[in-house]
Prior knowledge:
The protein is α+β, with helices and mostly antiparallel strands. Among the domains are: 10-106 and 297-365, no CATH class; 111-156 and 176-284, no CATH class; 622-637 and 647-684, no CATH class. Helices cover 58% and strands 9% of the residues. The protein has helices at residues 2-5, 19-32, 52-74, 94-138, 141-155, 189-202, 238-250, 262-318, 341-355, 380-390, 403-418, 421-436, 438-444, 449-456, 458-475, 496-509, 519-522, 544-578, 581-612, 634-643, 688-719, 738-762, 765-789, 793-836, 853-860; strands spanning 10-18, 36-38, 180-188, 208-213, 228-236, 254-256, 322-323, 329-337, 362-366, 618-620, 623-625, 652-653, 662-666, 669-675. The strands form four sheets. Strands 1, 2, 7, 8 and 9 form a five-stranded antiparallel sheet that branches. The protein is extended.
Amino acid sequence: MGSIYRSEHMKLCQIFFQSESAYQCVAELGELGMAQFIDLNEEQNAYTRKFVNEVRRCDEMERKINFVEDEITKDLVPIPDYDEHIPAPQPKHMGEMEANLEKLEEELVQINKNCKVLKNNHVQLLEMKAVLEHVTSLLDPHSKREAAMSISEAARGEAGPISFGMKDEFDKPVKDEKELKFVTGVVKRSKAIAFERFLWRLSRAKVFAKFIQIQEQTELFSNEFEDKCVFILFFSGEQLRAKVKKICDGFQAKCYTVPENPAERTKLLLNIKVQTTDMKAVIEKTLDYRSKCIHAAATNLRKWGIMLLKLKSIFHTLNMFSVDVTQKCLIAECWVPEADIGQVKNSLHMGTIHSGSTVPAILNEMETDKYPPTYFKLNKFTQGFQNIVDAYGIANYREVNPAPWTIISFPFLFAVMFGDAGHGIIMLIAASAFVIFEKKLISMKIKDEIFNTFFGGRYVVLLMGMFAIYTGFIYNDFYSKSVNIFGSSWVNPYNQTLLANMDAQGADSNTDLSLTFPPEIAFNHDYGPYPFGVDPVWNLAINRLNFLNPMKMKTSILLGISQMAFGIMLSLMNHIGNRSVVDIVFVFIPQCLFLGCIFVYLCLQVLMKWIFFYVKPAYIFGRLYPGSNCAPSLLIGLINMFMVKSRDASFAHDVGTAAGKEWVIVNGQNVTYTINDQCYLQQWYPNQSLVELILLLIAVVSVPVMLLVKPFYIRWRHSRGLHIDLGHGPDEHGEFNFGDIMVHQAIHTIEFVLGCVSHTASYLRLWALSLAHAQLSDVLWTMVLRMSLTMGGWGGSAAITILFYFIFSILSVCILILMEGLSAFLHAIRLHWVEFQSKFYGGTGIQFEPFCFTKIIRVYEGLDQ
């Protein structure tokens, strides 16, 4: 547990590179991923650094790759991932890469340009073809006469809305048909009505329009298809022709010149059909060639992207180095884990060899006051739990890491709230599938964020499922039902005749009669308690919640105070690691005393009440305990402790004397006694009031000790010029200010004192969520599955199948596992972040972010953020 218990020792190193070997050495360090470089040129802008031209060339190549990727995506061509290792390309190969990408870009741009022109020409030819095919019917004598009559009416001011199907006999004078001019073209069908109305209004009905829909598709090489219409516009006069063409341009209607001679139109139509066929063949060949280029580019795109990514990242890293006056040596500073310095030196040696340089890179370890970054060596199992801790804050350098303890406590507290063995089995199966097929799933490189969240935490979910099964057996809860594995410790004390008579009486009166099992005779004392978990008989009891709720509530308090106490113990490890005697003596010990004198004392009371105070009368701590009615009330007792309220010294007086008013049998002997008023509030062990008064005084005195001693100690050290560690992490700067230190210590003291109370209450969420999950599971069983089980015959079989497989299963997974599981997961995170980690964890450190090709490539592939 060494490396994950505390962060790795870090060293600030200075490396001297020869200019000709710097690139290859940095490439080797990128493959190793163990050096976090520091920018030594922060005061310089990006345009004045040494390798700015190389970075610009990389940016231009990146733009070209993005353009190619957009073209590939536009054609819906899949881009395969590249899984083989690709070494970083040499700087001398940049020219070749640029030439290849520039050639590909120019080729695609030219193909796109030619395709666009060819497609436009092809559309125009098809539209011209449609116009020629329909213009004969539009230019028939009937249409011309109809147009002439309409325009004549408009000229005399008698025109109304344009109408079709006019009678041949019309007694009004008409304009000569030979004087009519016409314009033909194509317009989108969706604009035809607006086009016609606009022409009618602007020309005052002196333009006559007719439309025929084109049945044949005119855009064969486009995914977008719009219906179009052939139109013909009749009018008189060349002046009106100019207006008509402007309107056509405004409605994006294309006008085509059509010969009036039918023979010429026929000849032109044949010619256009030949051109259309030839144009289609040319476009198909062009698109086929483009498709080959796109598929070839898609095969190598990820490879080019990774090569460029490594190239650019190396030059970006080199720009962080300082250059000596001779311009022949680069100087870098970086953080390296102390245990991996040997590997870094070996990578520098390999880089020098591969570059062909005769002068090796030199690494020197530096002494520094800079705050080191935090680095833990993790594996695929511990990574998920460390992510939970890091989401709160990065650990301070060499601070105790909560992750090792979170591996056990987090899934356990989750299971306390989730506790159902049946649902835990489903969760375990799902997580096991992730673990078993993890290599295959990793190779698939799934980029879905929700999937990656579950897959990244697969070992967390695996332990959550295991612990949920464990707590499910503790609660004896399996899909809201209990399982009788070992046999109940409770027996029926009533004879069958009495039960039969009561059953008949209940049936006659239409009421449900309930019986109470007296623990003195119904509990099998020889068999003892149920061997593991809750006795299954409680699942049948009416007062089931009256029994389970106090048990779960007290268990929550015990678990919560235990975890908080453990967190304070871990703070001792931080104080020892920091060699801070004042924190150990005047912070840690008062915290232990405050927590122990009040809350640990409460936990001891809970345990003693469970162990000693049974339903049977007995002598406990030398005092008569009359029975369960005198079992101590812990909550009111704790309040009386703070109020220093006087109480009787025992549960009863006049014990064993003739003055006793009541009697009980203890160890086979009759014992008389007179019970005290509110016996459950009285003292239940000798000198309880004195002990609690001492504990309360110790807790009260601990508060000013925590508040005052450390600030005045720091002030004393500062007055003598000694080193002061304020424990503020990497942001510890500025002059000494006693007021700030006093306020800081007061905040921590108040937070701890009030937090002990609020955090203890916060752990009651363990009980609340466990109750909610159990009740939801019971409701789902009662409302869904039990209804189908009560149905008989074929209908019952069908109901079981339908309700179980399609309703009960879906609701169980969606509500009880996913939603309730997420709720319990979030509450478990809160308990660890606030209640547990606040006792010892600073979380203000700096994450170690080494220059690592693996990390950069995963971000490029969309697998990491």
